[in-house]
Design goal:
Number of strands: 22
Number of helices: 2
Distance between the termini: 51 Å
Organism: Orbilia brochopaga
Radius of gyration: 21 Å
Protein name: Vacuolar protein sorting-associated protein 62
Shape: globular
Strand order of the largest sheet: 19-18-5-6-9-10-11-22
Strand content: 25-35%
InterPro entries: Vps62 (IPR009291)
Keywords: Signal
Number of domains: 2
Largest sheet: 8 strands, mixed
């Protein structure tokens, strides 16, 4: 009788699990447009934001309301007003890659401006009122599909480092584009890329931590670099993520859980034509062609609050957008990484006391 009861309980629990999985899948279908591959949703990353990070994911369009385009620190004229995600590419003819979306109020004087703080996700993981992610699907053929999950923040606050026991910050900037990429083979996930500053790391899908079947990314406090584990991550040596604390160290923890799918734009990317198309009418396309920077140009040393040591500035250039992130890369890593390892296991971690 006890054996029968145990078997019945196991059967009931299994049915509940399958029911919940179906409900979750149906919910994803409802919030994502038709046509996007279901596997791009089923295996989409979930992000743990650091519990103490004041700079949360931001609405992509919110930057346009708080900046103006400049070239060589001088305002640009002749562009549509107001600037929107539908006409942002019009700036390409007014300076191209020399254009910077420059904050209206000096960031060195006030990095606590409300618009820089973004939106904390609610209990469901949604950034309400803020479309803070862009999902870009590149169906490469021969059974391979790369899906990029781009995450946007209005501000990057670099973690402090100590030189001769004096704290410094290098690499603060307005605008912050981060991403994870999942490579699929015939609809099955094979590997995951985590962006980290100018480079990053790749792991086999099996090696990654997951919630259900969705891989976890841990967003570093301030810098928002994505890591596969929580804890300390020293990146003093390029392309190497050391577990201890040496010089340049990010810290991650399982703070707020963010589900980028809940507030995202969805796109196809066609590599031969280097073009984008939206999966639905709610996803503006033209901003993806913008050639300039999302944020201020690096401040000169004459500006109050700015300093440069070892060619590293406290306030650096804002980043380029998704079109410059090698969306059709052959390997899991971008080409600036001479060695591209797809790690079959997670590295150790050291958590700060």
């Amino acid at each position: 009788m006890a054996l029968f009861a145990n078997c019945l309980l196991v059967s009931v629990l299994l049915q509940i699990h399958l029911f919940c999985a179906r409900v979750e899948s149906a919910a994803i279908h409802r919030r994502a447009p038709a046509g996007i591959p279901q596997f791009a949703l089923d295996y989409a990353p979930l992000i743990y934001l650091h519990s103490d990070d004041p700079y949360r994911p931001s609405d992509i369009a919110s930057m346009l309301a708080n900046t103006r385009p400049e070239v060589k620190t001088q305002p640009v004229s002749g562009y549509p007003s107001p600037l929107t995600l539908d006409n942002l590419d019009s700036l390409n003819g007014l300076g191209g890659q020399s254009v910077y979306l420059t904050s209206l109020k000096d960031i060195a004087a006030d990095s606590q401006q409300a618009w820089l703080k973004g939106v904390a996700p609610d209990s469901s993981g949604k950034t309400n009122g803020a479309v803070s992610a862009a999902i870009i699907v590149n169906e490469k053929g021969h059974g391979t599909t790369d899906v990029f999950y781009f995450f946007f923040y209005n501000y990057n606050s670099a973690p402090p480092i100590r030189i001769f026991n004096i704290p410094f910050e290098f690499g603060n900037h307005v605008g912050d584009w981060e991403n994870m990429m999942v490579r699929f083979k015939y609809g099955q996930p094979s590997a995951v890329w985590y962006s980290q500053h100018a480079d990053g790391q790749a792991f086999t899908f099996e090696a990654t931590r997951k919630i259900g079947q969705r891989p976890i990314g841990y967003s570093a406090k301030g810098s928002h670099a994505n890591y596969a584990t929580d804890g300390d991550h020293d990146h003093t040596i390029p392309y190497v993520n050391l577990p201890g604390t040496f010089f340049l160290t990010d810290n991650t923890n399982a703070g707020l859980l963010w589900d980028p799918l809940l507030s995202a734009y969805f796109y196809r990317y066609d590599a031969p034509s280097n073009s984008f198309s939206a999966y639905d009418s709610n996803s503006p396309v033209n901003w993806l062609y913008y050639q300039g920077h999302w944020g201020d140009q690096q401040y000169p040393t004459s500006r109050p609050g700015q300093f440069v040591i070892f060619n590293q500035a406290k306030y650096a250039d804002g980043p380029a957008g998704p079109i410059f992130k090698e969306l059709n890369r052959p390997k899991m890593c971008p080409s600036n990484m001479k060695v591209c390892l797809v790690n079959p296991f997670l590295t150790a971690k050291k958590v700060k006391a």
